[in-house]
Amino acid sequence: GQLVESGGGSVQPGGSLRLSCVASGLTFSRYDMNWYRQVPGKEREHIASIGRGVIFYANSVKGRFTISRDNAKNAVFLQMDSLKTEDTAIYYCKATHEMFDRTDFYWGQGTQVTVST
């Protein structure tokens, strides 16, 4: 399987960006889809996920970010509003499928988001 993110870029504080992640080579509807972000020197942070009827947001993004998916397009999205300078990071998409004896997962390559004046 392969995941390809897009939509990153530079934006001023208070602005918005919409990230996309398109999957190929896997049965997309079976996978929980996740967004993570990482700042150099810090651990990767799990910020949102969607799957099996459950949506999760980290407190750091709750109320500002919205995750959604389109199974027909094999895509997951992250709408980011009211962006703050501390949202600057590389954003990664991850697909996970838990089975009884293992967990399959795939990572995207990441897309840079920079929030600055």
Commentary on this structure:
With 117 residues, the chain is mostly beta strands. The protein has strands spanning 2-6, 9-11, 17-24, 32-38, 45-51, 54-57, 65-70, 75-80, 89-98, 103-107, 111-115. The strands form 2 sheets. Strands 2, 4, 5, 6, 9, 10 and 11 form a 7-stranded mixed beta sheet that branches. Strands 1-3-8-7 form a 4-stranded antiparallel beta sheet, with no helix packed on it. A hairpin with a 4-residue loop joins β7 and β8 (75-80). The chain is globular. The termini are far apart. The model has no long low-confidence stretch (mean pLDDT 97).
Task: Offer a quick outline of the entry.
With 117 residues, this protein is mainly beta. The chain has strands spanning 2-6, 9-11, 17-24, 32-38, 45-51, 54-57, 65-70, 75-80, 89-98, 103-107, 111-115.
